[in-house]
Amino acid sequence: MGIRFKNTMSGRVEEFVPLDEGKVRMYHCGPTVYTYAHIGNFRSFLLGDLLRRLLEFHGYEVEQVMNITDVGHMTVDTHDAGEDKMEKAARESGKSPMEMARFYEEAFFGDLDALNIKRAMAYPRASEHIEEMIELTGALIEKGIGYQSGDAILYDISKFPGYGQLSHKRLEDLQAGAGGRLTDEMMAAKRNPGDFRLWKTDPNHVLQWDSPWGRGYPGWHLECSVMARKYLGDTLDIHTGGEDNIFPHHESERAQIEPITGKPFVRYWIHNRHLMCEGTKMSKSLGNFYTVRGLVSEGFDPIAIRYLLISGHYQASLNFTKETLKGAWESVVRIRQFVSRMEEAAARPAAAAGGGSDGGGASSAGATASEQAVDAAIETFMKQFTESIDDDLNVSKALGHLFDFMREVNRAEPTGAAAGRAAEAMRRVDRVLGILKAEEAHEDDAEIDTLVREREDARAGRDFARADQIRDELAARGIVIEDSKEGTRWYRK
Fold first, then answer.
1. Within 10 Å of residue 180's Cβ, how many Cβ atoms?
2. Tens digits of per-residue pLDDT, 243-267?
3. How would you class 298 by CB atoms within 10 Å of its CB: exposed for 0-12, middle for 13-18, buried for 19 or more?
């Protein structure tokens, strides 16, 4: 079987077949740069990274685009109401919207790099594609789908029969004014309760542009429609986002494009579930969120964050706690130490037995029992890992196979080429996982190396009191010592 994904549109797990053989066009909803993105946002961004890594693992050429929202995103997403998040944050910070946007955009890229998320082909900004949004709005008006009502251009959802198919909602159920978030005046201006804004005329808005309908700003849903089409074409292979993007954002995105192109906008819609924090949905509005830089400032390694966020299936809610983050780091350390041990063992000659190993990808007829065990484990592991990760990104199951593989290889105690092959197998699967990123050097690394050597000398001289003293001193600094017959290693908690 090939790669399979849960397609939100059909509600089923489907085999993935791109529009063009060997090439994948993929778009992701990116950050609204009015504050730091929280790790719940990064669960969605890591979904895109995992998809890209998996597809490249299988030899696909991936064109990947993620937008930067710096205008038009309202504070009440589901009802297109409230005020623009950028305008609100700029007013509260005392900065201009663009100053604030560039600051948080740069912070976002720093977080991407810290989490070892591959950079996309392009990160178009909404504010730099206003002309295309105006053109799309005009085209929708020409088709009788867009209409002017008061100071806004609205989209008539009754003119697009497919509206609601992605979110599996019926038109009669789309009561956009429920809950009192829209005023009677706003509701009266709409032909249908679910009609949404394409353009808002507002000469007082801090961000505004000229349009045929007066100076104002675009609706949030427009930006992804125009930028995805501009950079990736009329039909995308994959579009991702968090489950809260399904309605109204993604539903409205496709409604704006398909009447113009006459083609399906997206072949595979893939959405991740919410990240929970101590059992409650993580969100800025609730104030129960963590940022990457905030956790790093507390001493957590960003790759531990990456590991935790990808380890649970994207279709299931994931509960974040600092205890689970500590556990994630312990798993990362185990994996890294295994690879280091295998690479060190590869430098030692294998034990002679018959003809020994041929040093290639498979053992020769005269291979030792250890080499045969390692090569059998590699073959089984690569098959099981690939089958799991291809099955709708079942990372949890794939990681289970990874730890089973490590245990089998450790029992075989390989050296020479067999150990090297085990390490190479881990590095191959890490092309998908992205957790073997080299640790950053710290100012006290040399000092710690010196203390570790001093401890080894003390143990050799049977000065166990001094050896224990050094271990305790390092432990107080968050350094863990691991002794083995191959020598002593240390790592940071």
1. 8
2. 999 999 999 999 999 999 999 999 9
3. exposed
Q: Which residues, 6+ apart, have CB-to-CB distance to 317 below 8 Å?
A: 273, 274, 275, 276
Q: Is 167 found in the same domain as 140?
A: yes
Contact 265, 57 (CB under 8 A): no
Do residue 49 and residue 191 come from a single domain? yes
pLDDT (0 to 100) of residue 487: 65
In the three-class reduction of DSSP (H, G, I as helix; E, B as strand; rest coil), residue 36 is classed as coil
Strands of 275-277's sheet in order across: 280-281, 275-277, 318-320
Residues facing residue 488 across a β-bridge: 483
User: What is the DSSP secondary structure assignment for residue 463, as one 8-state letter?
Assistant: -
Query: Is 70 exceeded by the pLDDT of residue 183?
Result: no
* Same-domain check for residues 164 and 204: yes
pLDDT tens per residue, range 47-77: 999 999 999 999 999 999 999 998 866 544 5
Domain, as residue range, for 182: 19-272
Alpha-carbon distance values, 397 to 315, 317, 387 (Å) = 14, 16, 10
Question: Concatenated DSSP letters for 217-247?
Answer: EE-HHHHHHHHHHHHH-SSEEEEEEEGGGII
Q: Which pTM value belongs to this model?
A: 0.85
Q: How far is CA 359 from the centre of its chain?
A: 37
Q: Which of 431, 438, 419, 333 is nearest to 386 (CA)?
A: 431
Q: Which amino acid is present at 69?
A: T
CA distance 353 to 395: 38
Higher pLDDT, 179 or 413: 413
Q: How far apart are CA 54 and CA 82, in angstroms?
A: 39
Q: What is the DSSP letter of 394?
A: -
CA 61, distance to chain mean position in Å, is 19
Task: List Cα–Cα distances, 129 to 204, 225, 253, in angstroms.
Answer: 21, 11, 15
Helix (H) or strand (E) holding 198: strand 196-201
351 and 451 assigned to the same domain: no
Q: Which residue's entry shows tokens 């991702």?
A: 240
Q: Do 235 and 101 share a structural domain?
A: yes
Quick one: residue 72, left, alpha or beta (phi over 0 = left, psi -120 to 50 = alpha)?
left
Q: Residues, the chain, total?
A: 493
